[in-house]
Protein 1
Amino acid sequence: MSTVRIHDPVTDENDGVASPELDTAHGPILYLEDVTVSFDGFRALNVLSLYIDDGELRCIIGPNGAGKTTMMDVITGKTRPDAGTVFFGQTIDLLKLDEPSIAQAGIGRKFQKPSVFEQLTVFENLELAMHTDKRVWPTLFARLNSTQRDDIEIVMETIGLTAQRQERAGSLSHGQKQWLEIGMLLMQKPKLLLVDEPVAGMTHQETERTAELLLSLAGKHSVVVVEHDMEFVRSIARKVTVLHEGSVLTEGTMDEVQNHPRVIEVYLGD
Amino acid sequence: MGIGNLLARDRVGKTFLTLLALFAVVVSTLNLLVPEASAFHVSTFTVTVAGKYLCYALLALAVDLVWGYCGILSLGHGAFFALGGYAMGMYMMRQIGERGVYGNALLPDFMVFLNWKELPWYWLGFDHFWFASLMVLLVPGLLACLFGWLAFRSRVTGVYLSIITQALTYAFMLAFFRNEMGFGGNNGLTDFKDILGFNLQKDGTRVAIFLLSALFLGLGYITSRFVVESKMGRVVTAVRDAESRTRFIGYKVEHFKLWIFVFSAVLAGIAGALYVPQVGIINPSEFSPLNSLELVIWVAVGGRGTLYGAVLGAILVNYAKTIFTGILPEVWLFALGGLFVAVTLFMPDGLVGVARRLRLGGVR
């Protein structure tokens, strides 16, 4: 298995860009408490409480409609909950921030459907995602410095798209788009990565490399992975959370979870 | 970034700017230095028509920035153009002084006619060219800022936004038609005598305004190119193609849309200010929704998202309009509508797209 070179945001923090202060002194990096979201009477999230520790790699599984994507929407500001609190570290109230501010605070998201900017090249996609001052005027006069160029080069190497740097993202294969999106996530230097179905549509080798990449990111970052592929979850998971009907059914290691009678019931039907 | 550096990758743009400079020099020389009897003489009328086209081209450039690059289909850009035009028109009205029909040095003719006793407060300052010039930039800019802030913050997009922009320009037209507004009602502002002390009927003045139009078109092109080649250009393209995705990587999409919308409105205002001294009149029909629709057609015909396509489209469609309305005036609107349908169906990338395809075909 080839070694993957990882872009290291922790040692690369000196890019002069201020983010809101993240305080993880008490352990968890993300707190969801009693979060409820209803759509036309249907409770997509039902008094959900979930804590993600700093540096943890957590997998979230659950049948369709369990609320996995809605949970990510709440964390990233796309959906406002009807009730509950969501904190990033001890001090940042995510419910008070809009999507760009949450992204700037250090939460990166990879979507279920690969969503890259199809008209822009691989290089430009990574450049846009890069952690830097994203206000209007600085963006108008932004020039890439050598450190930033190097950062992009390293990420392109990590995701294996160096040869495609000048290609439009729209012309990439499905798997390559998934990788490009992961690369964009790395460029953002997030402290918390939310990854929605990262290996959907990937070949076996690509899946293996993704697992390796996510494992190497954990520790320095907190990673939350939503995935249907049980084999993949088993290969990376230390702790698994099972969602069902908008709240947590159980948490534990993969083995514990798979032998839990309620989980078997939910997955196999009663 | 130097201009040379900026245009290094824009070969068509370099050609366009060279042609523009050449055109400006040749036309003015043939008007001023070649005697009228000569076959090579270019009449002042032609110079003015050419200057008008250049103003339209600048306006098309403004529309292309918001529509072609940022995906905001504004059907009300004519309003910004007209406001720029009114600001310049007000200055020229004040320059008339006591040479008006009523010989009133204090009030423009239409105010005397309405029995007004003093100049409304919003006309104060327009005696000064610098003030009027400032208003040419500020009025369209502030309107775009206010409108854009409200619309983009509420995340109004697509067709809804287009309809609201159309309503905006329509509302302005109705308002400016009213005499009480103090902008000359349906007659608008006209009968201008001079600008900065230069007689507007003199060939030299006409040529100077024509040259200024060419200069501002060139400058407008270069600044627009700078914007679309900057990282901001890539951000607005990203907004056009995947707005919510752009938010999730940390860009405040509303701010970017607002910036480019205001910048575009200011360009449109400048175009209007250069247009009015050349045509000699500004009236509420410039706000008509149809005008704003036409602009979009110019850009679509030329090819959006390229800048030079917009310029090409504006000049060609207006040239066709001049010819057509001379021969078959009643058919023009049908021809224009047909043109839009044909472009949408058969050449979605406009003339620039067709040229690109031919060139690629030629290479093979």
Protein 2
Amino acid sequence: MSVPVKRKKASGLSQLIIPLVALGLLLLFNLIRDPGFYSVSIAVNNAGNPVLSGNMISIIDSASELAIIAMGMTLVTAACGGQDISVGAVGAIAGAVFVKVVFAFESITAGALLAGLAACILGAVLFKLFNGTLVAVFRIQPMIATLILYSCGRSIAYWINGDATPQISSPILSAVGMTIPGIPVPTPIFLVILTGLLMMLLFRVTNTRLYTQTVGINQGAARLNGINPVRIKLLSFVLLGVCVAVAAVIGIARLGNLSHKTILADIEMDAILAVAIGGNNLGGGRFRLSGSILGAYIIQMLTTTLYAMNVATVNVKAYKAIVIIVIVVAGSPVVKARLSALLNRVRPGGAAGLRGVS
Amino acid sequence: MQNNEVLRMRGICKSFLGVRALNNVDFTLRKGEIHALMGENGAGKSTLIKVLTGVYEKDGGSITVEGKDAHIRSPQDAQKAGISTVYQEITLCPNLTVAENMFIGRTKGALVNWKEREKRTAEILDSLGIPARPRQELSGCSLAVQQMVAIARAVDMQCKVLILDEPTSSLDEKEVEMLFGLMRDLKSRGVGIIFVTHFLEQVYAVSDRITVLRNGELVGEYVAEELPQVELVAKMMGKDLKDLADLEQVGVKNAGEKDMVYEAENLSSTEARPFGFHIRRGEVNGFTGLLGSGRSESVRAVFGADRVTGGTVKMNGKSVRITNPHEAMKAGIGYLPEDRKRDGIIADLSVRENIILALQVMRGFFHPMSRKEMEQFADEYIKALQIKTASQETPVGSLSGGNQQKVILARWLLTHPEYLILDEPTRGIDVGTKLEIQKLVLKLAEDDVSVTFISSEIEEMLRVCSRLIVMRDRKIVGELTGDDLTQATVMKTIAGGEQ
């Protein structure tokens, strides 16, 4: 039984090889370019609390919203075989609901913020259910179904609050968006970990993972085994909604205001990219959240690296695109097949056992 | 060589990965003849058609069209040689007009005179009596008319050989008559038509000759009028009728008079016409009939796989509502689908996940099994059914067909169903595994599980079933038990009519 165990690990890890190598190369590149890139120091913030600062801290911190949304996007991708392009716009709506509800209280208390959070999650989930219904019940392609809110979501956010950028500041909120006094690590990092842990818990106490993969791989067969594909697809959208709401609150807490135009702007494309870089099949089926989270950090690392190299803002996207093309091509089925064939030749019998058992 | 031969295929061989799909098959088509190509699943009909149309390249043999050697290596070659195919699914573009469809892919040069083309289209439609207008969008026509447009297109391309692959399977009776009218018209114009279908009556309604294939080999070519329906069935199934009578009768098991487990009355679905049957505890019954007779559709209705449209169902004497697979599973029914690849396996998931899937679903969304429990179940059934897999974690899609089937069997056995439906569990499986599955079915019956067993192979059905429900043209036409369970009776009942 020792051989199968080995294979289990090999097949489980293979999806993460490309993103791990990409991340390793980025780290190496920065190490050669400027070892100082990795220096971490303890600074004191405006409130007089110690905070860690450094490029790596800022990368991990600023990728938080992306990492959280990428988790939700992974589930929708796996179940529906398509992507939701309205996460940024629905994030704006969720943020607007949050601000609206918090402002309804006389002062910004912990209770007000909790009520705001609850409403924000509820709002995001409802809008995601709208997307989910179009996809799961009416079988509209996810991109088209979510295009609707993609184009009008930010207007809806504006209607909810009227004012273009409402200011919202409270010590609790800044503890969420920056650091908790006494803890030098930025709070959003903990929120990513928390979201990840909650997802793991969800996979442990429910069959979300098995059902989602089954529906994504073979919807008809899933039905014949008693799974309701519509419900599973809706569930994936609900979970994405929760992720979007959390990301929106982090975004507001970071800045202390809400701009319906810029909050979580363009995050949908990065989230889809994170899912892809993480080696997940954009056509649905098997998935790994860890891959997508890794993808999110790779994207942020790339951006920060480019800025650190003093690449002009207008050019950043172009350079980013080049690197991403390389990663995505390296992870493509064609290249993967070639690579594993090469590997087989190098060590005969090595990976041969993975397929072709008859 | 006779002068009127339009197509002559000789010694056609084709193998896939060492498996012979066609072995030395001859086929001859004459001018102005409708020639039915018959055979059960895996007989080689579609392989032969695909060789002829250039989809597959033959390994050996020769094809001549009108006496000239035809080198067909691609569908374009076939078209140039005057061979056209109209498939069961329309391959035209529904959102283009009829005239556009007539000329699609036939354009030479960039300039197109649409006026002329519409005129030409109108002429063809008119001459063939097809009720469509050139400027009408194709999707606005009925399925039958769409099919006729596809045929008209082939005719306009001067085709000499027209292949109709299951053209009638989605048409109603009137439409079938319309299509037959067109076929006879083409026949009178000298077109040779190859008609592939599984509806026996339709074969006799239009065909002049019948060629029967079985297991990739030619059984024979017959003049339709001289081949009684029952003999055709026997030939398709590989039985010589004379021998049938003296064939030893296989031991038939009787479930006795145990309680009724499942009863259906007037059950119907979007795919199955109303039917009724029942099964007792520990009984093995079978639905038999040719491909397309409705046997699979019927059991799909039992399991709620297609949308159930009516009828009453009782489980252990109590009324139950089964409108979807989940309800069927809860009622204690398991279902191994006919198409393993499409409906059975979850290819990318592991053997372990595929085995536990149905039981996991029955336990519920909020009661996931522990990894350890899953591994125990998987291990137990991999051993019990001798599933050959590198490990529990191997994706099931990479196993051989027989082992995939065992995985799905394991999935349902694990749920301990009271009533298990097995639709073609032994199709495409090696002989050893076939026997294992048959034994398993009998063992299940001993353990008081009721089993419905469907197979294209009559011997197999006779070996395991104590009652056979015979279907023809989507209706139950007979029920055989006891002494009637002989190959001869079964085939007579399948063929119907003449004795």
